[in-house]
Specification:
By secondary structure, the protein is of the alpha/beta class. Strand 4, helix 7 and strand 5 form a beta-alpha-beta unit.
Length: 171
């Protein structure tokens, strides 16, 4: 499966320790602007996650691809008020018509719904990784907790996700 990620999802997945595991199982693609946001801007701030993401790009587990239609990017930005990275990510999906978009930005989720673009969030990826046996219950609970800190998820969503992974453990 192909995952086309925006910068916030990529950074969150790296911060919580899930990106490396997912990158072994799935193909990750980002746009040049997402690379700039996640890696170049992160390195300017000396953020460890930026260096880790760059290493994954260098080794080829994350590919950088440009969207073909800049007009679509600009239309999305203008119509929905999304940032360039999220807009490029969605436009790249629209170019390819394959995979799933990883976004953690509410405006980007609205755009995905508008264009019938399948999307997921970092929180959902943790839950699915646990259900698929890629991570343990303890790892999932820690990652969910970390997303509550780094991802600015609402407390009720964090509690719901913990309940789901705990429930999956008892199935």
């Amino acid at each position: 499966m192909l995952i086309i990620s925006d910068a916030s999802s990529l950074i969150l997945l790296q911060k919580i320790g899930l990106l490396a595991r997912l990158a072994k199982k799935f193909s990750f693609v980002i746009t040049p602007h997402v690379y700039k946001e996640a890696v170049e801007n992160g390195k300017d701030k000396n953020a460890p996650d930026a260096y880790a993401i760059d290493a994954k790009v260098e080794e080829g587990s994350i590919r950088v691809l440009q969207t073909k239609n800049i007009r679509t990017v600009e239309d999305i930005m203008r119509k929905f008020g999304t940032e360039r990275g999220e807009s490029e990510t969605i436009a790249l999906y629209l170019d390819r018509k394959e995979g799933i978009v990883a976004v953690d930005d509410h405006k980007a989720m609205v755009v995905c719904n508008f264009y019938d673009v399948p999307f997921t969030t970092s929180l959902v990826m943790v839950v699915k990784a646990k259900k698929a046996g890629l991570i343990t219950l303890q790892e999932a609970k820690k990652m969910i907790s970390d997303l509550g800190i780094f991802g600015r998820y609402k407390d009720d969503l964090i509690k719901e996700a913990v309940g789901i992974v705990e429930g999956a453990e008892n199935d």
